[in-house]
Write a structure and sequence with these properties.
Length: about 100
């Protein structure tokens, strides 16, 4: 029943609010995978050698790093001359290992 000073809608909304005890503990949940931020030559060697061409997305998937880290690695490798950009468009570039 509604109290004398409050409309019935407000009286019902108070009753339906959960108490502090019923809130879930935010610390208890599934563990998330660790995300590696840096990509080393050793990590990138296997996927690069095994492919004719590779994208930043594929490199990130094979090495377990973020796409931005894979992209930064590939850009640095292009600068050093160990990898060349051979095709693609609009940020989705194809890279190929330079034969020594």
């Amino acid at each position: 029943m509604a109290s004398k000073n409050k409309p019935a809608a407000q009286a019902r909304s108070k009753a339906s609010k959960p108490s502090k005890d019923s809130k879930k503990d935010k610390g208890q949940g599934p563990l998330k995978a660790e995300i590696v931020v840096a990509l080393t030559e050793k990590q990138a060697a296997k996927p690069l050698k095994g492919a004719k061409v590779i994208t930043a997305q594929e490199l990130a998937r094979h090495t377990g790093v973020k796409i931005s880290a894979a992209n930064a690695y590939l850009k640095a490798a292009v600068g050093s001359g160990s990898v060349k950009r051979v095709g693609g468009y609009s940020g989705h570039w194809l890279y190929q290992v330079v034969s020594s």
